[in-house]
Amino acid sequence: MLSGTTPTTSSTPEQLLERFIKGNPRQRRQLIKSIEARASELVGLGRAVIESFDSAGCDWAAGWILQVLNRHDPEHVKTLIGSSQGWLQTESSAGIDYSELQSFLLNENFEEADRRTSAILRELAGAAAVRRGYVYFSEVPPMAGLDLVSLDRLWTVYSQGRFGFSTQARLLKGLDGNYVKLWPRIGWKVDGVWTRYPGAFTWSIDAPEGHMPLINQLRGVRLMDSLLNHPELIRHRDEAGLS
User: Fold this and answer.
1) Distance between CA 165 and CA 140 in Å, rounded?
2) Which pLDDT band, with edges at 50, 70 and 90, does 48 fall under?
3) Per-domain residue ranges for the chain?
4) In a 3-state reduction of DSSP, which class is residue 84?
5) What is the assigned CATH class of domain 99-240?
C-alpha cells in the first residue's frame, strides 16, 4: 500500500484512481481487481479518469482503465476517447491508419489485433512483402521506425505492459539473447513452427508475457532479431525505460 492512503475497500474512487496512477508496476497490478470491481464508480469520474495520462506516451495504466471501463460501459468510453482514431496518439510516416488496430486492442480482441499487426508489418516492408504474404528479415532495416514504435506503444499500452516488441526484447535480453530459451518462455513452439491452429496460441491477457505479437519463425530467428534490434525500437526502449 502506498503511504498515506486508505484500503481499496474504503477508499473513494478518486483515492483508488490516485493510488493506481502513482503506483509502481507491482502496486498497480495489485490494484487491478479493485479497478475492475469498482468500474461503475470510476465511470462517474468522467474525463478525470484518464486526463492525468499522456496519450503520446506508453503508460499501460490508461489503456487498462479504458479496457475495464469499455467492458462496463462502452458508450461512455467512446465519449472519453472523443475520436474515431482512438485514445492513444499514433504517428505514421508510411501513411498507415492505426485506428482499427487500436480498436481491436481496446476491445481485447488480441487475435484480430495480431493479424492486423502482421498486415501492417507487410505494408511497412513493401509491395513485394504484401504480395508474398510475409516479410523477409532483410526488409526490416528500411522500415519506418516511427511506425514500429507506434505498433510497440499500442501493444504495450493495451496489455498491462505484457506484450509488444519491447517486452519481447527485454525478456530476450534476460536470457542472454538465446532465442531457443525465449520461445518456451513466451509460450511459442520451440521447434520454430509458426502456426495459428487452435491450441497453438493464447489470445488473451492471460497469455505468457511477451506472447504477442506473433513473429514468423518459420525461416529462423533473423526476422524477429531484425525487428527487435531496429535502431528506432532500441532508441524507444531506452528513452521510455523499457529496456
Assistant:
1) 14
2) very high
3) 13-73, 99-240
4) coil
5) mainly alpha
